């Protein structure tokens, strides 16, 4: 199937061709015709599926078909993070570049001064890509009106709720017109996300393409056993040994980010912490340094790293393990992007072995436990029966019920008693 057969205007097809997309991805094939028919859409899709163009192309088409008279907001795209706002906004601008009219796409997010954004919104905008908090601030300042928005897109709805935006979303929904088209995208559907979708969508076309990324990442996953206190030294050893030009290291807390980055610096490695309490200026600067290879190592928390897109990251290290199996997938997805190969290393210690085993179970993987010479662990993981492992650890895994395998294992353990 080609883009031409989806019912898009020639100016959009030209833009797609110029960007270099040969054929539509699964979500684009399914979502574009449904959106063009005016239906609400519930899309289960991850980053990498091509979901941005899946909503941006029909959004632009609808703008093209409907714009007359003075400019008024046609599409509102809500996203969880500043970085995603910038990425999505830029994608829409690129796709709009051959349209026969000037399309104004405004990108607004918090953490920076509101005044330039208010100035930029003067004269209105056709499409606004926003994080919810800043959008509300702008509405409070009368910097824009959303009461006649024709299309609303919620992108990464699960992340929006994870980041605590549910109240802001409710307020925004109140201010939108009742008559509008809703496009709802999320990678996962825990009950609160489902409830939000149910409350917003009207007989939506359901589209699910969780298993088809545009380019299957080529990620070598490794698990290295190491005692917790020796992780920083092992990290340094791996960075030097593998000569990774850039590494994203995940830690659990802001304190750990500062601490590990500081230790690496003292060992002569260009490292910086990256956590949620940075100002927007500091974030931008650190990211720019990392992208330009002035920094070799970024030691980040999950929240800070969410939504950042850094091309060709050769390595990701789980210094602290992620809380959930889904977070594991998100983290390792930072490497091996766009057809490049990458390595994802997880540090596993006696204390975290059972937790890692559970992450493996959930993701249907089983990695050999490696040891690195000079860093062999002295502590060993306690031997626990599989049933009690799942019992004790299950509570620590966010938003996941016991899998069928876990239940079978428990039943088997009970039968053996
Ligand atoms: P997304 O899931 O929207 O974040 O897109 C993931 C990546 O796939 C982005 O780099 C897009 O530029 C790219 N992409 C989107 N649609 C296509 C397509 N039809 N063919 C090839 N690449 C695409």
Automatic annotation (TrEMBL):
Q: Which residues form the Helicase C-terminal domain?
A: 233-383
Task: Show the GO cellular component annotation of the record.
Answer: cytosol
Catalytic activity entry = ATP + H2O = ADP + phosphate + H(+)
Q: Where is the composition biased (Basic and acidic residues)?
A: 407-417
Q: Which residues form the Helicase ATP-binding domain?
A: 32-207
GO BP annotations, alphabetical order:
response to temperature stimulus; ribosome assembly
Protein name as it appears in the record = DEAD-box ATP-dependent RNA helicase RhpA
Q: Which organism is it from?
A: Rugamonas apoptosis
* Organism lineage string: Bacteria, Pseudomonadati, Pseudomonadota, Betaproteobacteria, Burkholderiales
